[in-house]
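Technical note accompanying the year-one report. For the benefit of new consortium partners, we illustrate the data format agreed upon in the data management plan: each record pairs a sequence with a structure-token string. No post-processing was applied to the example shown here.
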Amino acid sequence: MSEKHCDFNIDYKQISVYQEGGTANTQYPVVVTVPHAGRYFPEEFLKSTSLTEKQLRGNEDLFVDELVNPLAKCGIAVLSMNVARAFIDVNRDKIELDSKMFYDYPEDKIAIENNRCRFGLGLIHRINVENLPIYDGLLSYREVQERIKNIYDVYHHRLQQLIAKCVKKFGFCCVLDCHSMPSKICRIIPDSPHIDFCLGDLFSQSCPPEYTVFMQNSLAACGYNVTTNVPYSGAFTTFNYCQPRKKIYTLQIEVNREIYADESSLNKNDNFQQVSNDMTSSIQSFAKKMLDF
């Protein structure tokens, strides 16, 4: 990365951070989250990168918000991020910052150099899905703190509110964190059918095993190949919001993009509606079953 400074200021008052549905009168102890399907890029950010919007959108979870939006009409709370993942990734800890991306990183702050940061996919993505650099220079640490304050914190504050509301009404809550995975990742197990869905429960740590089994059986009954914890066992939301002692549970749901969309053109394919129907019916059945667990 060059020593050029990428400085820009954003009017965050103009940004709608998230969209929500089914939250006014929730009927089930479930909150569905979609942190990576946002498609909004601040204009100032776009002017600072040489990549096109299509290249940047390769980092997003394509149309996952639209896959699960019908759940809101069923009385299930749905919270979806509007802002693009390539701008800020709300499924990361806010301290997952690559210090080498900044020209003014505070000398007294400890850098969290975990794998995601090293691979360029920390809180602030350094690269896109094609391994192309998003920025052609160094960022301002102060500007990124504004992103955190005005987008990251706003999203997580609302998620915390919805979980608390759910616990107050039902005595417990399960957060279903919905994502999509690249098709190439879904062929990693030799001599095995490609993966359609992967359920991540931190290897049975984030929710009771019967939750995962019920969801797996429900999706499998629709004809899908469903794995658990491979290739994804859960990320920040799954780990951070899981509090079994407070009866707050989490389960990550990953869907293979190839089964509902064209990954090259970023368009829905002919199976989109069927996948949406199957996914929402499985989640609705899960939500109803939650009242019996």
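Partners are asked to follow this layout when depositing records. The radius of gyration is 19 Å.
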